[in-house]
Amino acid sequence: MLVLLGLFGTALLYGDGMITPAISVLSAVEGTTIAAPGLEDLVLPITVAILIAIFSVQRHGTHVVGRVFGPIMVLWFAVLGVLGARQILAAPRVLEALDPLHGVRFFADNGLTGVLVLGAVFLVVTGGEALYADMGHFGHRPIAIAWFAVAMPGLVLNYFGQGALLLEDPSAIDSPFYRLAPEWALVPMVVLATAATVIASQALISGAFSLTMQAVQLGYAPRLRIVHTSGSAQGQIYVPTVNWVLMVACIGLVLGFRSSSSLAAAYGIAVTTTMVITTLLFAVVARTLWEWSLGRVLAIAGGLLVIDLAFFAGNVPKIPAGGWFPIVAAAVLFTLLTTWSTGRRLVRDRIQLGRTPLVTYLAGLADDPPTRVPGTAVYLFSIPGMTPPSLVANVRYNRVLHERVVVASVVTDDVPRIEGRSRLRERQMGNGVSRVDVHYGFMEDPDLSRDLAGVEGFHADDATYFLGKETVIATKRPGMAIWRERLFGVMGRNATSAADYFRLPPDRIFEVGTRVEI
Asked: Considering just the CA atoms, what is the radius of gyration of the chain in Å?
């Protein structure tokens, strides 16, 4: 249940990655209608053009985008703070909102209506999650500094400023953010807001790349082409397939919902549901892995859950108005993730992968040893310590075994990265055969041709790599529904080849095919 909950939360984050760029850019461009109402018909074309530009530059990497737009973001939050502070000084009574008794009285007086209001104002407490989407890229310290020193002060001042403006002029409710700015500054504010939304979108897009790589590493998604965009920052990656799927989804959302207010319903459901799932996962991790006491877990997670569920309840009425989209998108992605995981398990069961320990198989060869040929053979297999089917097939049909044999297994550990020589675990099996487990963190992608060079006596120049390749046939045998089996087959046929994924030299690959009915 915990794994399924985590997978559905991951699927929701992908949905958030679709919605955030669409709503962010669309809301910024809509500001042009404040300065020039005649441009209303151009809002959608401009938004689509900006989205195409955002996704087109992803291949250059986060570091390039950050170098170009980083100073603009500092200017953005500074302007937010200045505009908000200016309005607070004009109506300082807005600071009375700091008294929590106002909130208590509001809910006491309004009951269910007060909860529904939370859905209307929910976007005020969102956006911070974009910072944490790239925690794996930049680490804890830069994120903390960016939040507490730059982002949070600017946002808090600006939201209080908008509240102060509405206290003085309720008619500004149509666009309190842009109404904070002087009339002469409207156009520069639209340009600055659009640039800022590009960065906010970038965080969610690159976060989707990271989630994809982790899903592949953990066996919940087929292998995809992953491109490293930085020679110094290991976590900065680009996944072309995900990038273009997100672009099409974002453009479809803009053209389908046509306004940021309509998209807000979808965004609210996506974020609030993710918040609830995150709190539940935190509670389980704190209790089982960190071994917190039950009272401590209930005190912290329970308090967070009260807030999360209140916002979730406030957004539930938005489901018919667009909140259905992230639920449907998450359900589709959840189906893909679980189908791939279940399908791989069925394939292993059908061809009885990993049923013969390597040491047992090698002992059996002593009775009728195959001919030894010069060179090094590397057999890849997903189950450490067991015999690769490609090795069995090569010996059975060709009756040969290389002078040096390396049985390599890639192991994904529950840590972001593996450093130094701890990546390789080598064990000599005798008679020129060795078993090597190559460990990677879930934030890394494998590079076997590089890492196997650390194996004692291994020479890449004379190594040949043997890979297993299964052709999956959907049948009515017990396992998955026939449509899911066919879906699994399609996903497998469109996956990146093992040779490309593990970065193996293409001119030294032998694939041993197997037909599998599931």
From this structure: 27
DSSP conformational letter for 497: P
Where do the DSSP E strands lie in 49-138? none
Question: Is the pTM above the cut of 0.90?
Answer: no
DSSP 457: T
Q: How close are the terminal C-alpha atoms of the chain, in Å?
A: 25
Residue 107: its H or E element: helix 100-110
Q: Which residue has tokens 């979808």?
A: 266
Q: How far apart are CA 179 and CA 163, in angstroms?
A: 12
Give me 434's structure tokens: 């060795």
Contact between 461 and 452 under an 8 Å Cβ cutoff? The reply is: no
- State the pLDDT at residue 241: 87
> Dihedral sign, CA of 118, 325, 45, 64?
positive
The identity of residue 130, as a single letter, is: A
Question: How far apart, in whole angstroms, are the C-alpha atoms of residue 459 and residue 185?
Answer: 65
Residue 352 main-chain phi, psi, to 5 deg: 55, 45
Q: Which two tokens stand for residue 397?
A: 């049909």
DSSP bridge partners of 405 = 377, 433
Question: To the nearest 5 percent, what fractions of the chain are helix, strand and coil?
Answer: 70, 15, 20
Looking up tokens 């919605």 gives 19
Q: What is the DSSP string of 357-426?
A: BHHHHHHHHTTSPPEEEEEEEEEE-SSTTB--HHHHHHHHHH-EEEEEEEEEEEEEESSS---GGGGEEE
Residues 318 and 316: their CA atoms lie apart, in Å, by 5
Nearest to 193 by CA among 127, 253, 138, 129: 127
Residue type for 144, please? A
Residues 6+ apart with CB under 8 A from 46: 29, 32
Of 422, 395, 285, nearest in space to 2 by CA: 285
Task: Provide the token pair at 222.
Answer: 């087929």
Provide the pLDDT for residue 449: 81
Owner of token pair 């929590």:
100
- Give pLDDT < 50 ranges for the chain: none
pLDDT the model gives residue 361:
85
The two structure tokens encoding residue 480: 């998955």
* CB environment 371-396: b (16+ within 10 A), e (fewer): eeeeebbbbbbbebebbbbbbeebbe
Instruction: Give the span between the Cα atoms of 257 and 19, in whole angstroms.
Output: 11
Which pLDDT does position 296 carry in this prediction? 92
Instruction: State the sign of the Cα–Cα–Cα–Cα dihedral 163, 167, 168, 171.
Output: positive
